[in-house]
Design brief:
The structure is a single chain. By secondary structure, the protein is an all-alpha fold. It has helices spanning about 5-30, 40-50, 50-65, 70-85, 95-115, 125-140, 155-160, 165-185, 185-195, 200-205, 210-235, 240-245, 245-255, 270-290, 295-320; strands at about 160, 165. It has a two-stranded antiparallel sheet.
């Protein structure tokens, strides 16, 4: 890979942050929405990042090891529905509901990882299949908002430390922990090794199957956390919140936009957070400009296409 390609990839997160900031400030000034530039406006922008950001952190891990996860949208819906159904507004049921959601999320990650690493099923097919199973079970048993979360659980989405919401603090704490995992642990090094060259990693003695399973378990746990957050934010759970949020495809898009190779082996957390910020800024800018939802989807689709095109260029540089 050329030094120029390495330099561009290293600067990708910074360029995304600068571009997103310029777009946000420009939209606020153009529409004279000066309140969007004060502390409350910036906090609101950060809150837009939470749901997608948590999912994208997990997606970063599986993409780095050369895999992918299309089941996260259905798992988010499942987690939100189970949490609200078990809690039913009772504070005493918060802990059992959270434990059940995380246990189920981990189990989904294990199933995905085993299917990919031991049965050699394509990651696209394995995770799409598990997602369809979950979505089918949800649709067969629930067709509307189900149960409710107690007011105490609402603090997950609406509680704050001063002006900074707990959910935003949690997102950046998870991002810092994920960055540390990638940079300072053996598991993180193995993720890059497996994604960069799985055959070489096996020859070096790395248990590539365990790395793949571990990445998928973490990805599913992050999706479960996102489901718990959305249940807290919506006060309940519904079988369509993950699907309608397009968290599966958008989490992949922001990871790739942030500079992580779709083939695995290169990338990181900073780029993912920058990609999430860009999508949050697009939402906020369109709201300030009064643009309907459909053009926003068109713009997001164009960004996804641009991300894939950029991936192709980076992949050619990687091969070279």
């Amino acid at each position: 890979m050329s030094a120029t390609a390495v330099s561009l990839r290293a600067r990708a997160p910074l360029l995304l942050f600068v571009g997103a900031a310029a777009l946000y400030v420009g939209a606020a000034l153009w529409t004279r929405s000066f309140n969007q530039l004060d502390a409350s406006g910036l906090v609101g922008l950060a809150q837009r990042m939470v749901g997608l950001g948590v999912v994208a952190l997990g997606q970063t891990l599986v993409i780095l090891c050369g895999s992918i996860d299309l089941s996260v949208g259905s798992l988010i819906s499942t987690a939100a529905v189970i949490a609200s159904f078990v809690m039913r507004g009772e504070p005493s049921m918060m802990l059992p509901a959270v434990v059940l959601v995380l246990a189920l999320s981990a189990a989904v990650g294990v199933v995905n990882g085993l299917a990919i690493s031991r049965l050699n099923v394509s990651p696209l097919i394995a995770t799409l299949g598990s997602g369809l199973v979950m979505q089918g079970v949800l649709s067969a048993n629930f067709n509307d908002f189900t149960g409710s979360v107690p007011p105490a659980f609402g603090a997950v989405a609406y509680g704050a430390l001063g002006v900074l919401p707990w959910s935003v603090i949690a997102l950046f704490a998870l991002a810092a922990a994920t960055a540390w995992l990638l940079a300072a642990t053996r598991f993180g090094a193995h993720l890059y090794a497996v994604g960069g060259n799985a055959a070489g990693a096996r020859l070096a003695g790395i248990r590539t199957d365990r790395v793949t399973i571990g990445a998928h378990v973490l990805c599913s746990l992050f999706a479960g956390l996102a489901g718990l957050y959305l249940a807290s934010r919506l006060r309940s759970g519904a079988p369509w919140i993950g699907r309608d949020g397009v968290y599966d495809l958008e989490s992949i898009a922001v990871v790739v936009i942030g500079g992580t190779l779709l083939a695995g082996g290169r990338g990181g957390v900073a780029g993912t957070i920058a990609g999430v910020l860009l999508f949050a800024v697009i939402d906020a800018a369109f709201n300030m400009l009064g643009v309907p939802a459909f053009p926003k989807q068109i713009i997001r689709g164009a960004i996804v296409i641009a991300a894939v095109a950029a991936y192709s260029v980076r992949q050619k540089g990687h091969v070279a």
